[in-house]
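Q: I have 236 residues here and want to know how they pack in 3D. Can you give me a structure?
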Amino acid sequence: MLPSNKNMPYNPWFIRYKKALFISAATIIFFSAAASYFVQPKKTPDLASAEKVSDRLALRAEDHVAGNREAPITIIEYSSVECDSCKKLHTVFKEILRAYPAEIAWVFRHSPQTTHPKSFREAEALECAWEQGGDDTFFRYLNQLFQTTRSDNSIDLALLPHIAGDIGLNTELFATCLEDRRFIKRVNQDLYTGEALGVTVKPHLFILTPRDTISLSGYQSYAAIEALITGLSQKP
């Protein structure tokens, strides 16, 4: 159809250009609307209240503690079994505890990663191990997990009960615990607390004394942690 304005020459290219421009604008509007619907801004953890922070970092009855629970220095580690840096830090953790068994309470809290979805089931498996033998069994199972997994989400989850058997646990009770998802709320409790504290990089350490709170992201060497322990121990 020719344009109604007789003074305007017929230009098929111009008409096609206007149609393409209209379609492009409509496409941009559609995807912008979709993005605003599906992508929600990440909430910033509410750390304004010092009381809330201290509550989240307080040692809880259900926390898994290696070392001396009454020690003057507490190290809270937010960690994931499928995190390679966490695996390296675990070696440091064992060395530190051998050197400072009375001075340190080392707390392991779950912080499974969405990039490594098997870490959620492994965290539940750790709780199933705890159910059969308390914190000592929890950390024995953690040692076996770190030795078994390559920390790249490649572990066969069917191995989890076998690992329990390797450290002398009842594999039938363990498998039932996993199937029941008995400890999913317990794992999420740690995960949500860590997120509220601003934990993003794993591992994340909070080193606590009655006077100090030190926050560290990522792998830390033995020398770095020992220096902090020494410095904190010498403070009046």
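Q: Anything worth noting?
A: DSSP finds eight helices and five strands in the chain. The mean pLDDT is 85.
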